[in-house]
Write a structure and sequence with these properties.
Blueprint: E1 9-10, E2 13-14, E3 33-39, E4 50-56, H1 63-79, H2 85-95, H3 98-111, H4 126-140, H5 145-155, H6 165-178, H7 193-202, H8 206-215, H9 224-242, H10 249-254, H11 260-267, H12 300-311, E5 316-317, E6 325-326, H13 329-340
Antiparallel strand pairs: 1-2, 3-4, 5-6
Length: 341
């Protein structure tokens, strides 16, 4: 038989067959997909609307994949009203491959064996089909799969950080419904509604349960809808606490030494008073000009050029708060010098 169904041993024990987050599926070749045409309304006529249902061929896969095949078979049998054992057998043979098909056919052959000496096979019935599917389950599931799955749900199951409370509760409910697919499982092995709420409570983080106690909320005294409402309230509060806060512009400007407000304070503006230097145009301080070299003579023209070089843009002066006056005294002197030269 197939060895692909051996359980994986982890540090905490045997890994469960079903988890809250389904394992990633490998890419399935299109040739391994079978497309069934199903009726939209079960038991409807020939001309009723239909839809397509694709099922991957199964050859010794994981327990979760086998459960998906079983659910697909139930859907096909119900929507197309396949009540004949021969039709169900043919449909199952189309899907199974390898060791799984061998286990199914072996069970059918043993069930139809006639103890009478005439050697004719017994007619195929629905009970034989069900028994053959259980034989495949025995081949796919690991040893004590149901026991390990229940113990994991009770003791080690924890809500993933990236999963919301609503999705978490829904995943637990789906997992509980799939327990009936395990070998040897009965309806008594399924968890009741109040037990599911208890499982969900102790799978939540400790900080959540502390907030439940602070609010006086006891999850086992209510149904799962109340648990979802309380959990979503915590999720909203956590999301608001993690939201980025807007930057304070006033605090940002206060830390700058060259801010506009500080500049106004230094100049005497913005405080309701005028400073003594208000309106004065300041000029940059220039260093002393170089003295002429000793013994150097200047002609009239050269002296005029030096004066004119400085007097083409004569300096401007301000007296108090009056308007600037242009002093052109040196301009007239330069003209006289040019005439005498």
């Amino acid at each position: 038989m197939s060895t692909a169904t051996e359980p994986t041993v982890l540090m905490g024990g045997v890994q469960p067959c079903l988890t809250l987050i389904p394992r990633s599926k490998s890419d399935v070749d299109e040739t391994e997909l079978i497309e069934f045409t199903l009726k939209l309304r079960a038991g409807s006529g020939t001309n009723a609307p239909t839809y397509k249902r694709k099922v991957a061929r199964f050859n010794g896969g994981s327990p979760a994949e086998w459960i998906e095949v079983l659910e697909a078979l139930d859907e096909i049998f119900a929507q197309n009203a396949l009540t004949s054992p021969q039709d169900r057998e043919n449909t199952i043979r189309t899907i199974l491959r390898g060791d799984s098909l061998t286990a199914f056919e072996s069970s059918i052959y043993e069930s139809r064996a006639n103890p009478e000496p005439d050697g004719r096979q017994l007619p195929l019935d629905e009970e034989m089909i069900t028994k053959a599917l259980q034989a495949v389950s025995q081949d796919v599931f690991p040893h004590r799969a149901l026991c390990h799955q229940i113990r994991w749900m009770q003791r080690r199951m924890r809500k993933p950080a990236g999963m919301g409370i609503r999705q978490f509760v829904a995943a637990i409910s789906q997992m509980n419904e799939k327990l009936i697919r395990f070998p040897g499982a009965t309806k008594d092995d399924l968890f009741k509604a109040d037990q599911l709420v208890e499982l969900a409570e102790f799978a939540l983080p400790d900080s959540w349960r502390a907030k439940f106690d602070l609010a006086g909320y006891v999850p086992t005294n209510f149904d799962k809808n109340r648990l979802i409402a309380e959990g979503e309230q915590i999720e909203r509060a956590t999301a608001l606490a993690k939201a980025p806060k807007p930057k304070d512009k006033s605090a940002k400007n206060t830390g700058k030494t060259g801010s506009t407000k500080n500049n106004f304070a230094r100049k005497g503006k913005g405080n309701g008073h005028h400073s003594a230097n208000a309106g004065k145009v300041t000029t940059k301080h220039k260093g002393p000009s170089k003295a002429p070299e000793a013994g150097k003579n200047f002609s009239g023209n050269k002296l005029r050029k030096e004066f004119i070089g400085d007097l083409e843009n004569p300096p401007k002066f301000l007296i108090g708060s009056f308007r600037p006056c242009v002093v052109r005294f040196f301009t007239s002197i330069s003209k006289k010098i040019s005439i005498t030269a």
